[in-house]
Amino acid sequence: MYDVIVIGAGPGGYLAAERISAEGKKILLIEKEHIGGVCLNEGCIPTKTLLYSAKLYDGALHGDKYGISARDITIDHSAVIDRKDKVVKTLVGGVSMALKSKKVEVIMGDAQIKEKKDGKIQVEVNGEIKESTSLIIATGSDSVKPPIPGVKEGLESGFVLTNKEILSLKEAPKKLVVIGGGVIGLEMASYFNSIGCEVTVVEMMGKIAGPTDITISESLKKEYEKKGVKFYLESKVTKVDDKFIYFEKNGEENKVEADKVLLSIGRRANINGIGLENLNVYTERGCIKVDEKQQTNIANVYAVGDCVGGVMLAHTAYREAEVAVNNILGKKDRMQYNAVPSVIYTNPEIASVGESEQSAKEYGLDIIVKQLPMQYSGRYVAENEGGSGIIKIIVDKKWNTLIGVHMMGNYSSEIILAAATMVESNMNIEEIKKVVFPHPSVGEIIREAIFSI
């Protein structure tokens, strides 16, 4: 008998298991594939490893801007993949060791929720029934594979790839077509463009980077068009064969040649086949429905991470896991999404938190919008020759509080934490003006933007 069973060892699952076990509770963590989930094995970590190599390569190629000359600069994609594998192995091992040190019992296998009887939740794994007082479902998500003619055959032949397969390619394609201009698509477009591949992005929407503020989205698109990436927006892919991707734009059919195709049009919650129906757990739009405590409609059954939909990010899963754990332990806690930062690790990076100009207007808020070039930061100018980074802040005029920050420029992924803290804390502008920023730092751009109001 366990206090808590956790299904899924991705960020939300393994963190929940560690946190609960640290409180002296008996925990069982069940994982069907690999510790660390998609983020550690096929997403966050491996993509950043590749992107860092690309950034170093790009810096070496253009070192003359900074008075540095180098010859015969090359990048070995196969070696980059080997290093990625080493990084992933190291971190997966680290998580496994942390679970062991916290005395978390781990079973590898498919979990099947069976029933709730006499207050005990039953879960079957590897033919054995396990019981617990509480259950946390953290089964994650998988790549959406749309029924576009030729996609299924392409996935089978290796011509069409998902985020999983592209991160294991030993040989870089000369021509890569990315279907989908969201986070995964743009990060992979960034990497392969940097190492010399011909990259084309086909996106159904009228902008790239999903819900990212339109100013930042358009600025990033211009940056990559300068680097040679081709974008086809408002374009619907209609067919894939073994050489071309066909798409419809403005009522006309077009095609683009590819050596490989990356399918990255979104992710779908993994909730089928785990036995939710045995407990009558409510779902909505293909995701598990939870309240602000991360609890489902069934008492003592919680869900966290991608399987609940919404903001499908690893750091969101971490916080959702903490909320679920705290409520299981009797500590009042609730999940809030108003200040969850989002980052796309392209070169330059983009990052945002809070409301965009568009979302604020949709909510009917009276806002002040200020935009500055990153050149207002001395360090940015010193380290980014010819850089065209920007910051855009959104202020609620009624309450004089900062409600949104959007940035393009390297270090944005680190700086956005300060902005998230300000938004989460409902800091007003006068309070932010009293914050002392280190100088010179790129983060000072937040202060510059605030004082420009």
Summary?
The chain is of the alpha/beta class and 453 residues long. The protein has helices at 11-22, 37-42, 44-61, 77-101, 151-157, 163-166, 183-194, 214-226, 276-279, 314-328, 357-362, 378-383, 412-424, 429-433, 444-451, and strands spanning 2-7, 27-31, 105-108, 111-117, 120-125, 128-137, 141-143, 160-161, 175-179, 198-202, 230-232, 235-240, 244-249, 252-257, 260-263, 267-269, 283-284, 287-288, 301-303, 342-344, 350-354, 367-373, 390-396, 401-408.
Descriptive account of the structure:
By secondary structure, the chain is of the alpha/beta class. It has 15 helices and 24 strands. The protein is globular. The mean pLDDT is 96.
Topology at a glance:
Blueprint: E1 2-7, H1 11-22, E2 27-31, H2 37-42, H3 44-61, H4 77-101, E3 105-108, E4 111-117, E5 120-125, E6 128-137, E7 141-143, H5 151-157, E8 160-161, H6 163-166, E9 175-179, H7 183-194, E10 198-202, H8 214-226, E11 230-232, E12 235-240, E13 244-249, E14 252-257, E15 260-263, E16 267-269, H9 276-279, E17 283-284, E18 287-288, E19 301-303, H10 314-328, E20 342-344, E21 350-354, H11 357-362, E22 367-373, H12 378-383, E23 390-396, E24 401-408, H13 412-424, H14 429-433, H15 444-451
Parallel strand pairs: 1-2, 1-6, 2-3, 6-19, 8-15, 9-10, 9-15, 10-11
Antiparallel strand pairs: 4-5, 5-6, 7-16, 12-13, 13-14, 17-18, 20-21, 21-24, 22-23, 23-24
Helix pairs in contact: 1-10, 3-4, 3-7
List keywords for this structure.
453 residues; 5-stranded parallel β-sheet; alpha/beta; globular; 26% strand
